[in-house]
Amino acid sequence: MDLNLDLKVEKQLYFDIDDAPSFVEDNFIISSSNQNATDYIYKWPNWASNCVVLFGESGVGKSHLANIWHNKAQALKVSLENIDFKDVQKRKNILIDDFELYSNKYNDLFHIINLINEINGCLLMTSKVNPASLSTGIRDLDSRLRNATPIKIDRPDDFLLEAIIIKLFSDKRILIDDRVIKYILKRSNRSASELIKLVNIINNKSMEQKRAITVPLVRDVFSDVGY
Predict the structure, then answer these.
(1) Which of 57, 113, 194, 207 maximizes the CB count within 10 A of its CB?
(2) Gap between the Cα atoms of 208 and 210, Å rounded
(3) Per-residue model confidence (pLDDT) at position 22
(4) Which strands form 122-127's sheet, in the order they lie side by side?
(5) pTM over 0.70
(6) In the chain, which segments carry CATH 3.40.50.300?
(7) pLDDT digits (tens, 9 = 90+) for 125-134
(8) Is 154 exposed, middle or buried (0-12, 13-18, 19+ CB in 10 A)?
């Protein structure tokens, strides 16, 4: 038995984290794909309007960046499923994730936007679509959304994805080989949220089989999950 391999595996098994992404500021990695959005979020409270929509496809980091603002602005995070307008009025700064998914609550959203204007608060929303392209069926709400400031986060570039993979393994105290990183990037869904799940699956297989995280092990994982 290879002692060096055993030691390497033992180090890899030393620490584990769960599947939940961490939205702390120190874990947010800036690259060309999110630089403009990051710069704008950090301009708060000097925004061009008090209603901003951070949009982009799933897994690009919208919720992470929005939660950084949430902490800086001491904002209230609300769901359109359960709105307490008194709480909105008290806190002034409001975060709503994936607002476009709650079409049955668009009337409430219209009232929230109006209330934010009245109390000079700020509203940050995330969405998978550009708000200007959304037709809510409420003409005045469509007008409000067109007047909001749309901030796009592009798909992660290679630099960002590599940094995410390194960070995810580093959090588990694993120094990952560059060949493994390249292999993962070529074959995985280019999404931060999917990479979080994938790294945990890889680490679990490494622990279960007491194998170092190498290209052959990752190849087995891809086969298991159907990549």
Answers:
(1) 113
(2) 6
(3) 62
(4) 76-78, 93-96, 122-127, 51-55, 149-152
(5) yes
(6) 32-152
(7) 999 999 999 9
(8) middle
